[in-house]
Amino acid sequence: MAVVSDEAKESRFKALSAQPHEIRGFFDSVGPWFYSLFFTSVGYRASLRFFVRANHGRLGLSEGMSILDAGIGAGFLTISLLEEAPIPLKITGLDFSPGMLVGLRRGLRRLGLEERVRLQVGDMRSMPFADESFDLVVSSAAMEYLPEVGDGISECGRVLRPGGRLLLIATRDSFMGKLVAATWRNKTLETAHVRSCMARAGMKNVESLRFTRLFALFNWWGMALLGEKAG
Fold first, then answer.
1. What is the DSSP letter of 42?
2. Has residue 183 been placed in a domain?
3. Helices and strands (H, E) in the chain, number of each type
4. Structural contact between residues 78 and 72, judged by C-beta atoms closer than 8 angstroms
5. What is the pTM assigned to this prediction?
6. How many domains does the chain have?
């Protein structure tokens, strides 16, 4: 995997950030099949399954709750929640790449999960949902594509009900994180900055969760932060 300098990566990201349709076009052209193949081969899909299995109690999962996956992409986190949660769930998925959603619909159909996921095209910075619509909001490998992560986190806080939980999994500013970012044209995020954005969005008791020992590699590049919206 080629290593891209910080300067070159930032320049490329600014070009994408200035024109959101460029990011959408990137994912539409890359295709959900390649995205799925890449992250399956490096073990990320499997790691999320174990992660959900180990932490579903912390997420406060309950039957009939309203869940949003913001920036659902290939749906790895949503599928893990549906398959690993001890209770049946239904999830709303939002993404601004129609191409990714086409591939995800096919995948959900193959797994027999299409009736449990409602997909919608939209921007995480201005989500088409009313205030306090969801009991749980999750987002995995999506906030890194926003010009300012705080805009997306603020929207997540807006649509989350008091007492609800927000789970963010994102690329951390580390050596391994930079390798991932060089491939997928995203930026890396400072954990302290993300925590600060979560606090401004009304989250309290923000805790850091870790991937299991079997997939400890992902702790080197990623962060997983869970917060609860103040009442």
1. T
2. yes
3. 10, 7
4. yes
5. 0.79
6. 1
